[in-house]
Structures are given as C-alpha cells and as structure tokens.
Amino acid sequence: MKIVEFLRIPLFQRAMLGAFLAGSTLSLLGVVVVTANLTTIRFALMHLALLGGAVALAFKLPLLAGALGGIMVASLILGPWAERFKIDPGMMSAYLMTGSLGFAFILFYRAGVPAMEVFSLFTGGLLLLNLNDLFVLLFLGVVVLFVFWAFYYEIELFLYDQEMAEALGVPIRLLQTGLIFLTGLAIGVAMRVVGALMVDAIIVIPALTALSFARGLKEGLIFTSLFGVIASVGGLFLSMGADLPVGASITVSAVALLAIVNLLKNKFNFRRRS
C-alpha cells in the first residue's frame, strides 16, 4: 500500500495527529530534563508509569489511566514528600526504578496478563489511539505550551542561574516539583505512543539534538519541537512504508536525526576553524 493511500485511513490519520502532538509539545520537557540533569528522576518516573500500566493491565483498567496514576505517585514521592521527609531524590529514584520493575513483572505473572498485552505496554500503540487518547494528548500539549509561555523567564532562570532565581524570589522548589510532575505526565502519555522502552525517543532525544547547537532556551525549545515532529511523524511514515514496528521506527528516526545533526555540526565547526 502506498503512503498516499494510508493518508485516507482514519486509523492512520489519528496516529499521525497523535505523533505530531506528542513530537511538537511533549518533547519540550526534554529540554528541562537534559538541562537540569533530571536523568535519574526521569528513569524513576518512567518505571512508576510502567508499574501503573501493569496495575491497569492486571485489573482491566485503561492503560493510560494506570500510567498517569503511577506518575502522580512518583511525582509526590520525588517532590514534596522527598523534601518534607529529607529523602535524597537520587537515592529514592534508584529504589523506585528497581522496585517498580520487579513489582510490575510480579503483577504480570500473578494476574496472568497475556504476553501480547505486556508487549504492547513496552512498545506502544500509536496506531491504536482513539479520540479520547487524542484529547488527552491535545490537552496536555496545550498545558505544556502554556507553562513555557507563562513561566518562560522563571524556567530560564531555574535552568541556567538558580542563585539569581532565588535572589529574585522565584520559588525554585515549587517550580521544580511542577516541572517534574508535568514531565511525568508527558512520560505517561508518551508510553501510549511509543511504549515504555522508547519514551526517550519523544521526551529526550529531540532535546539532545536541539541543545547540541542551540543558543539559549528559546532556540532550544523551537528546534526541540521541530525535531520532535520530524522524528515522530517521520518514524510513523517509515513504519508504514517499510512495514516496521511504529515505536521502534520513531526511535530509530530520532537517533538518526541526532547523529546527522551532530555530524553536520562537527563538519561545520571544522570548516569554520580552518
């Protein structure tokens, strides 16, 4: 089947819209993850989302609802609870990463979850998106855009000069907790698109690609959104044209884009020095 023919299929149209929404908006939070060095916390959020998804599969609940429930718990543990009870977020993240994965597989085993359902949790279901999923994607995307628009300067200070932010009265802890929670929600929704194993293809890799050459936050956000769309929509077309898994195709597209941009950057820098 030709690509043009795919465009006439409602299922593919929903998948393309979902890929565009995820790539253009959810990827923006990767700038926060990369710049603020929240890699460990991101892993913990991913694993708690996975555990939430496992609970949903075990008890026949909506997968997205389970993942978002796990994210809410993780955000509380790594945010206000960690601060209140003087818990090191890095240490707690390590516990959450290993413990949640173990509990998830125990749930799969005890509940007799079919192997294909477990596989779909890890690899995503972009082609299975329904109108409710698209509404959640759209709503979360609008929230992400609003947060970066309304709190742009506070986020910029938080990422690049926290001492100045504190001196100006920016609530650093509250801002960090809010961004962690929002990143967690994005991870939970991204799991529905590309699966638990390939969340970084939407959340992190576009930001890494953009920040490898971007000058400043605004430029980083613009190029992150652009690369997120290219990777997600391009990966969807690659999967349809070559009959490949969608989540894996999006991941390969994102990694290839990162490699190409870095090669071009290095070549440009070499020519400029010479």
Summarize the structure.
By secondary structure, the protein is an all-alpha fold.
Report what the structure shows.
- There is one protein chain.
- The protein is mostly helical.
- It has a single domain (3-267), classed as Orthogonal Bundle (ABC transporter involved in vitamin B12 uptake, BtuC).
- The chain has helices spanning 3-6, 10-25, 29-35, 39-58, 63-84, 89-111, 115-123, 131-150, 152-160, 162-167, 172-194, 200-203, 205-211, 217-242, 246-273.
- The chain is globular, with a radius of gyration of 19 Å.
CATH superfamily: ABC transporter involved in vitamin B12 uptake, BtuC
Order of helices and strands: HHHHHHHHHHHHHHH
Question: Which percent range describes the beta-strand content?
Answer: under 5%
Helix content: over 70%
The geometry reads as: globular
Tell me the domain tally: 1
Q: Which regions are unreliable across 5 or more consecutive residues at pLDDT < 50? A: 270-274
Largest sheet features: none
- What structural category arises from helix and sheet content? mainly alpha
Can you tell me the CATH class?
Answer: Mainly Alpha
CATH architecture: Orthogonal Bundle
- For this entry, what is the oligomeric state of its chains? single chain
* The CATH topology: ABC transporter involved in vitamin B12 uptake, BtuC
Strand element count: 0
Q: What is the number of helices? A: 15
Average pLDDT works out at 84
Radius of gyration: 19 Å
First-last Cα distance? 49 Å
